[in-house]
Amino acid sequence: MGVKLVVLAPYYEQATFLWSPFLKGWVAKELRARCVEPVVLWGNDCVPDKFAAAMKDPEVKGVLGVGHGSDDEIVGQGNVTLLKVGMLVPDEWKDDVFAPVSCLVGRRLVPYLVQQGVPAGIGEVTEYWFTAAGTATDGMDPEEDPLLKFFLYAEYTFWFKLAEGATAGEAYDAMIEEYKRQAELAKQVDPLTWWCLQVDWKNRKFFGDRNYRLPPTPGRILTKTEVSASGERRPTEKKDAVTVTGRVAAEDGSAPRGWVRVKVSRWPDPADKSDVVPLDSEGRFSITFTFGWDANIDYTYTVTAWYGGWVDERCYVPSSATTTVTVRSGRTPTATKITRVEAKREDDVVHLYVEGTVADADGKPVAGGEVEVAVTDTFPVKGYVRTDAEGRFAWRYDVPVDWFDTRLSVTACFRGDELRMPSCDEKPVKIPPNWKVVAIIAGAAAVIIALVILAAILTG
Amino acid sequence: MAVTFEQLQETARAILGGAASLSKEDFARKVEEWVSSQPEWLRDTFFGMKVKEGEGEGARVRVVVVRRSEIPRRLVEDDWFYQAFLRFLAGWL
């Protein structure tokens, strides 16, 4: 005997236009991957007589999907009532879990159904708020909608876990945790979506028996995805290479068939890459991604591998795994110090002298390192020198005096290399006055003053 | 300076708690400022809930879904939505 779930998928106004394609597409596909048969009541099929007929099937063990709700009822296509407080709950419903996404049904409707013998249910005790981009195509992949996906991944965790053999309580707890996780992810994209998810999980209540399980689903084979990643910096290509390897193992020891979607996300300077990789005959997969980089940054790559499942006469259940790998810049810090800076004036020329040292992270001299020494002023001046065996450098430059202001600063920067990071130092320098000119001016002034005094004496 | 989502939440709590006497129109303007500060692609996305009001033939589905850029106008025109949105933002549900 198989297991079936009734999926309410009305399709008649904006909210259902946004949600229901994912019920018919992605949710149904994921249930089938767990050997659970979805009975999708799509559009005009989501009405009372067809709902009642579907629910008579003894293999049906639950109701999910969407519908507008109030304290006392939930509606289907065109707002027609499907379930209502006070209705007779048939015996064949008494092994069915009820957990549709709907406003307010956690206040009275779901508690009523549980009171009438339904084993377990989930209901929102307030409005269920959501956001969506409305960009779905066929609804086969939540990634089609960059906002609604957060709600889909969170909400349907309950049903997928239940279909994998978890108790209703375990599945509910996993769903709440996934809501919290998705809320944090959404926060990086949109605060309104984050808040909707927060409000929704806090008001999404469980009713009934936490130990209830769906009957075993014949043919279902649980899988476990294992993934590892290694990172390598390739300076000649100016790229990081992230190699992802892994394996999908089936609980019965058989080799699962199918594909794994591998996604690698980089931080900082966010970048994503993903690809689909076929499993080999032992369920293994491997792929390498390359990312361009800034040589001075340590990057952390988050790697996720999703096995999408495989259905033939058996159902290999989807599974996923995540790991991270950090690729370090590989370069160690250095310290550049200007030990002497001097500006000597000779007539109309300034002789600049700059001396300094470059040391590595352990304080040892960096030999042969290229140092850029620069004076930034009206006319920028710079030059390049190399450090000697003791890590010392010296630079001399003669410039016309009128190139510079009297006060300026000199910077010296070790330019870094494949092993070491750049470093700089800066020192002020003052251009001394031209003493010859000063003396001539002072002498001329003294002569003028003397002449003035003499003239004054002679004229009495 | 653009209105942040956190500031909208604080304003909603202040209105509901009686600590602010902002008119519906003033609050809608704040929401409009916030919407305008959002990336362009988000302004055109949908926001809503799954709720039904009333019983039997008189029942009707309320607001349900609006585009984000339409929220300010809907706040002014629909008092039920205004109150529900305030409670939602404040987390007082």
Task: Provide a compact summary of the structure.
The complex is a heterodimer of chains A (460) and B (93). Chain A has helices spanning 14-32, 48-55, 109-115, 148-155, 157-163, 168-187, 191-202, 435-458, and strands spanning 3-9, 36-42, 60-65, 73-75, 81-84, 97-98, 120-124, 129-132, 204-208, 220-221, 223-234, 239-250, 259-267, 271-278, 284-292, 299-307, 310-311, 315-316, 319-327, 334-346, 349-360, 370-375, 381-386, 392-400, 407-414, 423-430. Chain A has 460 residues and is α+β, with helices and mostly antiparallel strands.
Number of strands of chain A: 26
Largest sheet of chain B: 2 strands, antiparallel
The poorly predicted ranges of chain A are none
Order of helices and strands of chain B: HHHEEEEHH
What strand order characterises the main sheet of chain B?
1-4
- Described by its quaternary structure, the protein is heterodimer
Explain what this protein looks like in three dimensions.
The complex is a heterodimer of chains A (460) and B (93). The longest helix of chain A is centred in the C-terminal third of the chain and has 24 residues, at 435-458. In chain A, β6, α3 and β7 (120-124) form a beta-alpha-beta unit. With 460 residues, chain A is an alpha+beta fold. Chain A has helices at 14-32, 48-55, 109-115, 148-155, 157-163, 168-187, 191-202, 435-458, and strands spanning 3-9, 36-42, 60-65, 73-75, 81-84, 97-98, 120-124, 129-132, 204-208, 220-221, 223-234, 239-250, 259-267, 271-278, 284-292, 299-307, 310-311, 315-316, 319-327, 334-346, 349-360, 370-375, 381-386, 392-400, 407-414, 423-430. The mean pLDDT of chain A is 92. Chain A contains eight helices and 26 strands. Helices cover 53% and strands 12% of the residues of chain B. Chain B has five helices and four strands; from the N terminus they run αααββββαα. Chain B has helices spanning 5-16, 24-37, 40-43, 71-77, 79-90; strands at residues 46-49, 52-53, 60-61, 65-67. In chain B, strands 1-4 form a two-stranded antiparallel sheet. A two-stranded antiparallel ribbon of chain B has the order 2-3. In chain B, a hairpin with a 6-residue loop joins β2 (52-53) and β3. In chain B, α1 crosses α5. Chain A binds chain B through residues 13-15, 18, 66-70, 72-75, 79, 101-104, 126-134, 147, 190-192, 195-196, 198-199, 203, and chain B through 4-6, 9, 38, 41-42, 45-55, 59-61, 64-65, 68, 84, 88-89, 91, 93. β8 (129-132) of chain A pairs antiparallel with β1 (46-49) of chain B, so a sheet runs across the interface.
